[in-house]
Amino acid sequence: HLYFNNRALSPSGEQIESDLNHCEYDGHLRLGYEAFENTVLFVEPGVSVRRYDSSPTDYPQLAGGVEDRNSNGGQVLAGLTYNASSVTLLDFGVGYIQRDFTDPSLPRANGVAARGALTWNPTDRITVGASLNRDIVESTVFGIAGFFRTAGRLSVDYEYDYNVILSSSIEYANETSISRPGLGEHIKDLQASVSATYLVNEY
After folding, report:
1. Is the CB of residue 153 less than 8 Å from the CB of residue 170?
2. Where are the beta strands (DSSP E) in the chain?
3. What is the pLDDT of residues 120-144, one digit of tens each?
4. Using one digit for the tens of pLDDT, what is the confidence trace for 22-35?
5. Cα separation of 31 and 18, whole Å?
6. In the chain, which ranges are continuous DSSP H helix?
7. Bridge partner residues of 37 (DSSP)
8. pTM of the prediction?
């Protein structure tokens, strides 16, 4: 269950965020077949359910301009996993995703889905990671059912010492709204981070 706190506004008042509180239920099943050495082909169907605490369907007293964002959806991915020893691991799938909302005024969300990750260890101390994901994310903006979010991430971890790991990453995301006519939004986001992790012990 996801909880959101109301935000204080200056000089007084607050922005209500508690209507974002909701539960997310997801289930996936992966079926794989080792077609070649180190290569597994797979099909992965999944289902997802979203239930909002402030749904006017479940609580009619909340009706009156409040959109019912409860939804049911699913996706299916087909792809492969390639494991070239302990140096390189690739897991990538592409397919179709769909989400239907209880509120008939919110458009159906459907389109291409993708999820992939690549891990490469050029040395014993360096790990390079790359990922690509395309999924539907939640929205509570009026008239917008959600966003198709496509994100790519690149990261590098360096084991400076046996208990010190230095990390850096950069991520770019492109979000396109699934909305009623005239209410579309397009968001681009770039994030970069640098961090250090100190391990107290090997556990």
Report:
1. yes
2. 7-8, 14-15, 22-28, 31-36, 39-52, 71-84, 88-101, 109-120, 126-138, 144-161, 164-179, 186-198
3. 999 999 999 999 999 998 887 788 8
4. 888 999 999 999 99
5. 39
6. none
7. none
8. 0.80
